């Protein structure tokens, strides 16, 4: 049974890995039944349950979904405190946690490794941060492990699987901090760990995530992976303005259903192995509310997503 479940999770990884390229083909227009136009208040906090943080020996909240956070696991870490003092970055600009759903073998490890490499990076005023240049390449010699990957019609492994979670989390923190986005690519299919329009993917030498520090002070980046949670935050000298996401769904494509025979099931029973996700064409922007009461709209472009198929097991096809 464990081997069977592992293979099933590999198939999930397949779909997500194959989605790393941005599909520029227009999505088919169908009724928007499952995806709604949304306006998300970035100030809303993720739901948090209190648990013990073994790293620092203090009580810390682990959220049950991705979202902005203000409580962060490194607040009493001496290295972090020293970095804040050295760079005079004692103000939290923004923090975000990405919750990984049932991470695959090697994936969680790679996310933790990338987070450790990211923590302590400083972006000077008017400088551009590049994820690939900062913590790549994602290769074995740098400590990254192999994870399940689908190539053509066979299952294989590649090194560094999972670093797109770093890119997606950095993207959200950059938006929250009102940074300038220089380069961002959406996945080819929707991902389950952040909302439509709020993801980012990287492929070393091909696709990168970049933002520009448009402040007049350095920005300190800190990051940490704890179990299936990835935390990233920016620190500086002044609080950014309030930010609200707006996503306008231009079109959706229903997720198809694919069936596989499982003779162990009862007749008429269906078992969903992979939860499908509808494809979409999503136009995103943010509304910036400045302290003086003025507002500004910043367009972030259109994200194109192919549908992720459902995989359903049945005893027999009728």
What strand line-up does the widest sheet have? 4-5-13-12-6
**Low-confidence region ranges:** 1-34, 38-45, 47-59, 148-155
Task: Domain count, please report it.
Answer: 1
Beta-strand percentage range: 35-45%
Walkthrough of the structure:
The chain is of the alpha+beta class and 318 residues long. It has one domain (2-25, 42-240). It contains five helices and 19 strands. It has helices spanning 2-18, 78-87, 107-118, 131-135, 164-176; strands at 38-41, 48-53, 58-63, 67-68, 91-99, 122-123, 128-130, 146-151, 154-159, 180-183, 210-212, 219-226, 229-236, 242-253, 257-261, 270-274, 279-289, 295-305, 310-314. The chain is globular and about 65 Å long.
Concise structural overview:
The protein is α+β, with helices and mostly antiparallel strands. It is built from five helices and 19 strands.
Which tags fit this structure?
disordered N terminus; alpha+beta; 318 residues; 5-stranded antiparallel beta sheet; 4-stranded antiparallel beta sheet
Q: Topology, pairings included?
A:
Elements: H1 2-18, E1 38-41, E2 48-53, E3 58-63, E4 67-68, H2 78-87, E5 91-99, H3 107-118, E6 122-123, E7 128-130, H4 131-135, E8 146-151, E9 154-159, H5 164-176, E10 180-183, E11 210-212, E12 219-226, E13 229-236, E14 242-253, E15 257-261, E16 270-274, E17 279-289, E18 295-305, E19 310-314
Parallel strand pairs: 15-19
Antiparallel strand pairs: 1-14, 2-3, 4-5, 5-13, 6-12, 7-11, 8-9, 10-11, 12-13, 14-17, 16-19, 17-18
